[in-house]
Write a structure and sequence with these properties.
The protein is mainly α. About 65% of the residues lie in helices and about 0% in strands. It has one domain. It has 10 helices and no strands.
Length: about 220
């Protein structure tokens, strides 16, 4: 028996198959599913159910509770939370320093809300900003319109602290600034990496879902 019959030729050895990387659309599937689930859940919670943390826990306004309330307030309002997170899609065409401009106009809106409260149909207008944001995503409106829209959100967030003394109010504004900064950092930096992997058609799908949420929230605020 020829012993060389059992010796494999290295030149004929099959090369291992290269690992296949998931395509951009396949890799973006979890992001799309997460976005659709989030919008569906948010539709089940009308904006009118978003309360102030102090009201929920029946606390007295103090510097500590004011700070905690400011930190939590942007998270308990579904329309405001969705508006902030959807900025990840808008931010694809914006610079990072755009986040600083949004924070400044939001704080300015809160200051105006403290000085000139009582804007009629405030909650409906805030919900309508989701429709505006969706139209910006669909490139039907310029992104600069989101600056006054963000100021309107800041205006609405100040309505629940009217009549507070200076110390709790100051700590509330600090907490609000930190919380909104964290949400903007999450949307414009972390979530933006997922959005970059989305195809244009899927971004339009998310924009349509956002438009539907805004219309539903606006109707809920008008009939409440």
């Amino acid at each position: 028996m020829n012993p060389f019959l059992f010796v494999r030729d290295p030149a004929r050895r099959p090369l291992p198959a290269a690992p296949q990387r998931p395509s951009g659309s396949a890799a973006a599937q979890p992001a799309v599913a997460l976005g659709l689930i989030l919008t569906t859940l948010l539709l089940l919670v009308p904006p009118a159910q978003a309360h102030h943390l102090i009201e929920l826990l029946h606390l007295q306004p103090t510097p500590l509770t004011g700070l905690l309330s400011g930190l939590a307030h942007p998270w308990v309002g579904p329309d405001h939370l969705l508006f902030l997170l959807a900025l990840a899609l808008v931010g694809l065409r914006q610079r990072r320093r755009w986040m600083l401009g949004l924070l400044l106009v939001g704080l300015l809106g809160s200051a105006i809300g403290l000085l000139l409260p009582g804007l009629p149909a405030r909650e409906a207008l805030v919900a309508l900003t989701l429709v505006l944001e969706a139209l910006v995503l669909l490139q039907r409106l310029p992104a600069t319109l989101l600056l006054p829209a963000f100021a309107l959100h800041g205006y609405a967030l100040s309505s629940s602290v009217l009549g507070w003394s200076q110390a709790p109010l100051g700590f509330y504004l600090i907490g609000l600034l930190l919380s909104q900064g964290l949400l903007l950092l999450l949307s414009l930096v972390l979530l933006q990496r997922l959005c970059l992997r989305l195809a244009l058609a899927r971004r339009h799908l998310l924009a349509a879902a956002l438009l539907g949420c805004g219309a539903a929230f606006t109707w809920s605020a008008l009939v409440a």
